[in-house]
Design brief:
The protein is of the alpha/beta class. It has helices at residues 23-26, 33-43, 45-59, 83-91, 130-136, 149-162, 179-193, 199-206; strands spanning 14-19, 62-66, 114-115, 141-147, 166-175, 195-197.
Length: 208
Amino acid sequence: MSATETLRLAPEETALVLIEFQNEFTTEGGALYDAVKDCIDATGTIKNAKNVMDNARAAGCTIIHVPIAFEKGHKEISSKPYGILAAIKDGETFKSGEWGSDFCDEMKPAEGDIVCKGKGGLCGFASTNLDFLLRQNGIKNVVLGGFLTNCCIESTMRSGYELGYQVYTMKDCCAATSIAAQEAAYEHTFGMFSVPTTSSEIIAAVSK
C-alpha cells in the first residue's frame, strides 16, 4: 500500500489478533507491569486497543485473543531455559488460573470473540490453533496489537507474513519494556513483515 492509498479492509476477511492483554503486563500489581508501564503510558496502548477492539467488533471483524499461560511449575518450559522464557519460568509468571494470567478488565473477551489456545512460547502461531482459527473463519487480513512489541508481536508478525496473511501491525496498540526498543522495532522491523498502521487507520479501514 502506498502512502497515498486509503486503507480498506473487508470486515468479514479481517481478524484483530490481540496478544497477551493480561494482568501481568497491563495492570498495577502484575509482575511485568512496571517494565512496560512507561511504554503503555507513552503509547496509550490499552486505551487505543480497547477502542479499536470495540469498533472492529461492531464492524463485523473477527476478534481473537491470544493469551499465554503455564501450569504450576512451568513444566512446559525447559529445565535449563535461557532468554525470555527463563525469566518467565524463574518469575513464575502467567500461571494458569491465577489473576496474573487473566485478561485485564478493559480487554476481556466479549460474546462472539474467540480465545486462541496453546500459547506457551513467543510466536502466536507456533504452538497454538491460531492458523486454524483464521482459516476456518475465512480470514485474509491479520491486524496485530499487544505485548511485547519486539518479542511476541514481532514473532507473530513474521509467521503470519510467511503463512501468506496480509499482516497489519498497530503501532499505538503495542508496548515493550522500553520506549527505545519499541521505536527500534517500528523503524527497523515492522515494515519488513507487515504494514505498519495505527488503531485509527484500522477503524477507518473496516468502517462501512
